C-alpha cells in the first residue's frame, strides 16, 4: 500500500469516483511534471452541497463543501497519475465561493480544502492559493476548487 493510500485509510477517507466533465473540457491536463485539475464542485455522496454563503449556507457547511471539492480534486489526481505517492507538491488551489456580495469570509470557507491537502499530503500539501467570491457556480454549487499539482 502506498504512503498516501495508507494515510487516506488512517483518516477514514474513501475517495469518490471522479466526476466526468459536463461541458467541453477535460477533467485534468498533464504537461511535463505539472498536472492541472479542472474545477471540482461540491458534489458528494449525499448529492450536491448547494447554495450561497451569506445567504443560508453557514461557514461550517461551506468548509464541508470545500473539503468535498478537495476530495474530488484528489480523486482526479489519482485518476491522472495512478499512485498518489507520485505527487511531489500541491502547488496551488483556486477556490470559488458562491456567496452574497457582502460575504467576507470566503478564505475561511476555502480552508476546508486547504486543510484537507495538508492532512493527506503533509508538507507536500502546503500550497499557494486564491479564493474568490462569485455570484454563481454551476448547478448552484456552494464551492468549486481547481488545482495545480507537481507530479513525478
Automatic annotation (TrEMBL):
Residues 6-146 form the Endoribonuclease L-PSP/chorismate mutase-like domain. It comes from the Bacteria. This is Endoribonuclease L-PSP/chorismate mutase-like domain-containing protein. It comes from Phreatobacter cathodiphilus. The lineage of its organism: Bacteria, Pseudomonadati, Pseudomonadota, Alphaproteobacteria, Hyphomicrobiales.
Amino acid at each position: 500500500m502506498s504512503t498516501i493510500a495508507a494515510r487516506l485509510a488512517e483518516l477514514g477517507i474513501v475517495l469518490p469516483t471522479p466526476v466526468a466533465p459536463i461541458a467541453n473540457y477535460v477533467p485534468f491536463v498533464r504537461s511535463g511534471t505539472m498536472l492541472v485539475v479542472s474545477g471540482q464542485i461540491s458534489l458528494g455522496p449525499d448529492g450536491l452541497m448547494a447554495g450561497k454563503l451569506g445567504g443560508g449556507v453557514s461557514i461550517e457547511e461551506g468548509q464541508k463543501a470545500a473539503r468535498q471539492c478537495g476530495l474530488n480534486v484528489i480523486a482526479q489526481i489519482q485518476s491522472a497519475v495512478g499512485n498518489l505517492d507520485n505527487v511531489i507538491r500541491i502547488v496551488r488551489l483556486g477556490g470559488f465561493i458562491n456567496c452574497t456580495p457582502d460575504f467576507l469570509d470566503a478564505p475561511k470557507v476555502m480552508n476546508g480544502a486547504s486543510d484537507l491537502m495538508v492532512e493527506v499530503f503533509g508538507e507536500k500539501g502546503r500550497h499557494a492559493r486564491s479564493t474568490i467570491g462569485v455570484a454563481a457556480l454551476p448547478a448552484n454549487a456552494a464551492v468549486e476548487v481547481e488545482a495545480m499539482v507537481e507530479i513525478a
